[in-house]
Amino acid sequence: MVMNILDLGKRLLDPSWIDQWLGFTTSWADPVADLGSGTVTALMPDVLMTLLSEGILSRFGGQEIDATLLGHDLTATLDVFKVRRRGAHFQSKTVLSDLVWDSHPFPQVTVIAHGVRLIPGVPTKVRCQQLDIEGTIGIAALVDWVNEHDLAWKAELDKRGRVVATHREKKMRAVIDAQVYDNLLTIDIRKANWHGLRVPRRVVRSPALMLDDLPSRASITYAHRRGDHVHFRIELGETTGSFDLSQMRNAIIAGTTLIVF
């Protein structure tokens, strides 16, 4: 009996058995390491996509991740990450919860990338024809983000959860609501006063503004308030980034920051 236990212990501690186990658990990453070191230059995009998607999902699925995406820092819980072929290109779907993007919190965001292509090399390039981003942001977080831009109006929430805008110079205050459809921002003025005097609604014109020249050729399909959150959908045109495969592999295995630049 004692000899059997000792024999089992020797087998469990056998270096060759440990090497085999490590080789099996990280076998999906070996081609990525080879490509990152430049020893393999013809890895098929299908294989690379499969390796990366399986590696990222198996390592980070259901867990909080740290990433640097095109120069922006984010943390989030990865709920869904799927990649599938669509004709000559790929399509990916990513669902993130409790996302913090450059210190701005989003309860949930879904990103669908259309027309994704991988261009092998050092670094490897990734290009997509369009990004569809749907999500929610808390109204308080949105108000804070607006105030960061040092506009003529300062926004705040009153005790009833209404958005109150105050002009920094003209002593005018207004209770407002706003929505965006197809890049057209419309503002509804519910109540307004000037130097403490009530301004009749019939003489207050609700402004509308076309949101042109948004960063990265973005288009806001819709953004509207529902309770304490704003639901939105944003479309981005062709986007190109790149990443270091060896860094990506090490980040997946070690659970450290993923970097796309």
Describe the protein's architecture and organization.
This protein has 261 residues and is of the alpha+beta class. Helix content is 25%, strand content 48%. The chain is built from six helices and 16 strands. It has a 16-stranded mixed beta sheet that branches. The longest helix is centred in the first third of the chain and has 16 residues, at 45-60. The radius of gyration is 25 Å and the shape is elongated.
Short synopsis of the structure:
With about 260 residues, the protein is α+β, with helices and mostly antiparallel strands. It has helices at about 1-10, 15-25, 30-35, 45-60, 140-145, 245-255, and strands spanning about 65-70, 70-85, 90-100, 105-120, 125-130, 130-140, 155, 165, 170-180, 185-195, 195-200, 210, 220-225, 230-235, 240-245, 260.
Average predicted confidence as pLDDT: 77
Overall 3D form:
elongated
DSSP helix count?
6
Helix content: 10-25%
> Which structural class should the secondary elements be placed in?
alpha+beta
Give the CA-CA distance, first to last residue.
Answer: 59 Å
For the largest beta-sheet, the strand count, sense and barrel status come to: 16 strands, mixed
Compressed to H and E, one letter per element, the order equals: HHHHEEEEEEHEEEEEEEEEHE
The tally of beta strands, per DSSP, is 16
Return Rg in Å.
Answer: 25 Å
Strand fraction: over 45%
Indicate the low-confidence ranges by residue numbers. 1-29, 31-43
